[in-house]
Amino acid sequence: MTDSTAVARLAASWLLTYPDEALLARLDDIHAAVETLPRGSRVPLLTFLAHVADTPLLELQQHYVAIFDMRRRACPYLTYWTDGETRNRGMALVRFKEAYAEAGFTIADTELPDHLAVVLEFAAVGDRLTADALLAEHRGAIALLQQALAKMESAYQHVLDAVMATLPALTAEVVERMHQLAASGPPVEQVGLEPFPTAPTLIEIGARR
After folding, report:
1. What is the domain count for the chain?
2. pLDDT tens digit string along 7-60?
3. Residue 81 belongs to a domain
4. Among 58, 81, 121, 181, which residue carries the largest CB count within 10 Å?
5. Are the CB atoms for 78 and 138 separated by under 8 Å?
6. Where are the alpha helices (DSSP H) in 17-68?
């Protein structure tokens, strides 16, 4: 993974978190980093940053909640797209946590590990091969989220455009890691498990590590 890919993924991770004063304070640094990126990720991220700069914070927050909290077709949790609200989703979430743990990457207990912003941060600063495998395995979910945001004419479609531009090619190494991840689901009893939530939690990027 090139440095520009890592920068694009980390910028997208920050921009997919709930907009607050902390995010606004980072905008100049994010903008400067984005300016160094290749066109495929630079242009859509700059478009979104311009939207953030021109929109009142309260309006940004209301839009975020309306899009990501209230509409299932814009769910930012990747395993929701593959497992829905079934018990299988519990095992899928454990796989994410175990992949992070193997790479020495931790997240807060209040965050689900399959939120796209979390996955993108791991992809930027965690284990490259594992991150590429996770992203490649969930490429379809990311594409569906991108399409849903575009149909809703949400400015967040530009962030997803940038994410799509960073997705890895399916090399033999990545495919092998995908197979390893798929085979590593823990043999746990599913009966009696509580259902997992689908509403996004407010992520504080940078507080995890």
Report:
1. 1
2. 999 999 999 999 999 999 999 999 999 999 999 999 999 999 999 999 999 999
3. yes
4. 121
5. yes
6. 21-34, 39-53, 57-64
